[in-house]
Queue: 2 jobs
Job 1
Amino acid sequence: MYDRDALLAAVDLRQLADDLLGPGKRVGRSAMWRCPSAQHAQTGRTPPVSIFTSHRGEQRWRCHGCGEGGTAIDLVIACRGATSREAMTYLAEYAGHREQPDSWHPSTQRVALRSPQSAGCSDPEGLDRYVNDCAKRLWKPESSRLRHWLTDVRGLPTDVLVKNQIGADLGPRSQARPDGIPRTAGIVLPVIQDGHAIYAQIRVPQPRPDRPRYLNPTSDLAANPRLSRVRPVEVQHPQVIVAEGAIDALSAASAGYRAVAVLSAAYGDESVAVALARLPHPLVIAFDADDAGRAGSERLLALLEARQRPPVVLDLGSGDLNDAMRQSNDWPAQIERMLDLAMSGRFGPIAAAVNQ
Ligand SMILES: [Zn+2]
């Protein structure tokens, strides 16, 4: 159901090649990429693929070693083993032309961010009801303190909070809960999959120094899915931003990006990389600018590169994504600048860009 020509016109093949094949290598005046064909053994010294514009005005790629080539659709097919229909769905998502406003992944590829252990939930209806109750309650007068923390202290826009069903739990005396949800007041950060809650964390805004900020349900109720998809009100960019925790992921969504929150402390692990590599979008890692964040980001980078999904890594300079958002005058432009810097290969602290 796609207009092939419109779709191809909407995709920058050079950018797509950078994203799918890894950044192009400059050879003379033009860039060259590796060949996506599995049959084509390459040394990697001089990549064989070039990109040109055909006499019809269409961008095409061609491997000078084995003769493979074609349009952006053919590149997706060659890289991902997709059918042409799947490739067009992929490109539509990639270009931000979306068939359905809230479809996260191509309908033919219903691979959710589901790790094997998250399959079981002992009380899915109870969990769903709890998340819905809390999401409604956040906007009632009695939740003003929690709402203030989200919107004023953390600077998160109300439409993004509504979109992601962020909620308020005012404690066990005013809020019923399924067995396994902590009996504590706080902000409810649900993990929604296919329209249903499969997990929920409670963020305590101002915990006592000896208490944790995040409280998790028992594994009897729901296993930690490790990742949570966070949606912008309207998708405005092809990239998915991978952030530490829900607050940072909501900050990325505030700038119109799809985001994934990594929930587990051991973020850079194999199962997280496997789930992220399945997403059909360019990946951007934006972990905290501290030792733990940098280590996690390096590990995840290596795991994703091993899966032919090299991500772009943002260096925030200091703090986290939420800090960067709150310090910025124009947050969407800010992220785009950070992405441009990271992709142009000028690595290193970008505090200057963040603070400008
Ligand atoms: Zn080739």
Note: The first helix runs from residue 4 to 10.
Job 2
Amino acid sequence: MNNSIQIDNIGCLYTANENGVQSYENTSLIIENGLISSIGDSCEINSINCNGKMVTAGFVDSHTHPVFLNNRENEYSMRIAGSSYEEIAKNGGGIISSVNGVRNASEDELVEKLEKRVNRFIQNGTTTIEAKSGYGLDTDSELKSLSVIDRVNQKHTIDIIPTFMGAHAIPAEYNNNPNDYINLVCDEMIPEVSKQGIALFNDVFCEEGYFNIAETRKILNKGIEYGLKPRMHADEFIDSGAAQLAGEIGVFSADHLMAVSDSGIESLAQNDVIGTLLPGTTFFLGKSNYAPARKLINAGINLALATDFNPGSSNIQSMPFIISLACLFMGMTVEEAFQAATYNGAKSLGLENKVGSIELGMKADLILWDLNSLIEIPYYISNHPIQKVIKNGEIVFGA
Ligand SMILES: [Zn+2]
């Protein structure tokens, strides 16, 4: 057999799908041409011995902002000294401070930075990420950011799902006429992004001080008109009715939801919208307002978990750590958190038939752990005993 690998002597294999977590004991896998071709059989080919340890599907991180130039550790210090995220933003920090970096950087510089970050995702067992633009906030810089994502996606084995997020913030030069910026997003950026075919999704930061309900509706509908699928940052700081809008539009995912109202929850549930929770942001900002995961699950909403990796409010790239936070602070079970970090993340990207679980014909995206059971993932809160990461059947970490 060509391009075949066998993963042998797996003590326990865990994978999730719409029915929850499945496990197989004392099993093996065969990968052919990058895809899972058999579970449980073995044959005499190149084999990797797991020595009875655990194998899981690779993580799907369905919400990241990885295209920026420099880190923002100075803001972290300001926050430790007592400034809030909102205060830092008002003083020229926050999203806007990353905008100057992206506007002035060359595409090559940004590619180099993104590649390093992508390697760190891989080391933490993440084999698929969604990546947003949104630190350019002018047509050229947004297109440049998406081109950076595209170039790294072509070069790197990780799968990167590109999202256009021109509506991440109003850039300073439009502070006095935000409507003109919204028109720029709708009439220039979205048509050009669509023409270049370099984004699958269109995301809007629907929040007080960013984009209100009417503006968000307009931008998402314009994207839909141009073939960009909608997703939203919703009800992060206050309940602005964003979750109701997410339900009304039928977005692929409504993200954050720390301040979601009961009617917002109802709207998400009725319209089968996935809620993506980002507990890393709450944790990184030193807050305690975690999203009401149990309430959302009890309402019948499927939850995904993601890092929200970005230089301001979540310098976190580890999905195992996010699973720890989800279990400790949001009352999710380990099984729920694992499903949210794999299958449901893939579903929120429309990729559940390709990645996020270990099934015949799916991409062979696997984590070989030096662990024995799922419960140990959140238990090892600050280091992750990962032996190898396999993407498309290739060892990309721990060779
Ligand atoms: Zn975000």
Note: Residues 324 and 379 are 7 Å apart (CA to CA).
